[in-house]
Design goal:
Helix content is about 75%, strand content about 5%. It has about 325 residues and is mainly alpha-helical. It has two domains: about 230 residues, no CATH class; about 40 residues, no CATH class. It has a two-stranded antiparallel ribbon. It is elongated and about 95 Å long.
Length: about 325
């Protein structure tokens, strides 16, 4: 297990030399739903600070979305029937063919990517892929400390975790990023092809894999910052814990879905009245709270199956050693 309390160096910038609130010794810290909200409100200020750092995870995505939707567009026929109907109508014109041609000739605005625009999108994707693991490991280290009741200094702890796990976080983050992209693309692809048994089966299979990977992500970076394990071992244990901790994982996923659903509902209800706060609000706290939900769901499972047995074994060895 990594000794995260030894040789820990703080960055002086934003590092106020004051003690954290620490652990409330007289309270029960059993990770129940009630204690989740109690801890969430207690640590909310630090979660807001962490969310500012986590915004670097979404800035490249926002740039790509901005370029995609607000860049130059060209009206384009998207119906696959247009080309053959146009050819048939050229050879043999008829009212029926003309009607079908009119229906299939409906156009939509399709983005047009110039070389600078395409280069910008590729740069943002590469930037996100390269920094994905570092950003996740920094955030997870802070979130783990908040859950355990450690004295947390958000900025310095974030940077410390990245420096300590620099190489491993990069490669594990790259694996995570590629898997996320593949699952998203496959999900969207089979979603647009649903309607037959084969494609429906593939769609629900991909959906199940998405849920499994989301549950695994609860554990991947927590295992990385807590133990000295190879990447393969981390992924293997994350898959095992996704099954062993299924109840907590389901509750964590439902909590994240509920948080997202609430924001979508607020956007639908308030945007027609010109109130844009629901669009901005998630960027203030949502990323950190979602990460906190994942850590709260995962770390008790890690504690039960890895940390407690290890500590029990160490205590047994100490008790068995003869006194000199």
């Amino acid at each position: 297990m990594k000794n995260t309390e030894q040789t820990k160096k703080k960055f002086k910038l934003f590092d106020m030399n004051r003690d954290g609130k620490g652990v409330y010794e007289q309270e029960t810290r059993k990770p129940t739903l009630g204690f989740f909200f109690k801890l969430l409100f207690r640590k909310f200020t630090q979660l807001l600070q962490l969310n500012l750092l986590m915004l670097f995870m979404v800035i490249p995505i926002l740039v790509v979305v901005f370029v995609y939707f607000l860049g130059d567009k060209s009206p384009t026929v998207t119906n696959l029937l247009y080309a053959p109907m146009y050819g048939i109508n050229t050879v043999t014109a008829s009212p029926d063919i003309a009607n079908i041609l009119d229906l299939s000739a409906i156009q939509m605005e399709v983005p047009v990517f110039s070389f600078p625009t395409l280069l910008l999108i590729i740069s943002m994707v590469v930037l996100l892929a390269v920094t994905w693991g570092w950003q996740n490991v920094g955030a997870t280290y802070v979130l783990r400390g908040l859950f355990r009741g450690d004295a947390v200094f958000v900025f310095s702890d974030y940077i410390y975790a990245i420096k300590r796990n620099f190489k491993q976080a990069f490669f594990l983050g790259l694996i995570d990023f590629i898997c996320c992209i593949v699952l998203i693309v496959d999900f969207m692809y089979f979603y647009n092809l649903t309607g037959s048994f084969g494609f429906d089966f593939m769609y629900f299979s991909i959906f199940a894999l998405v849920l499994i990977w989301v549950a695994m992500k609860f554990y991947i970076y927590n295992l990385l910052v807590t133990f000295d394990l190879k990447n393969f071992k981390i992924l293997k244990n994350a898959l095992i814990f996704a099954i062993l901790g299924i109840k907590r994982n389901i509750m964590g996923i439902l909590g994240i879905v509920l948080l997202i659903a609430i924001h979508i509902m607020l956007i639908v209800l308030l945007i027609p009245y010109g109130i844009s706060i629901p669009i901005v609000l998630p960027f203030v706290y949502a990323l950190a709270v979602i990460g906190f939900i994942g850590t709260y769901a995962a770390f008790p499972v890690i504690q039960k199956y890895m940390i407690d047995p290890y500590q029990s074994e160490q205590n047994t060895i100490e008790d068995a050693e003869p006194e000199l």
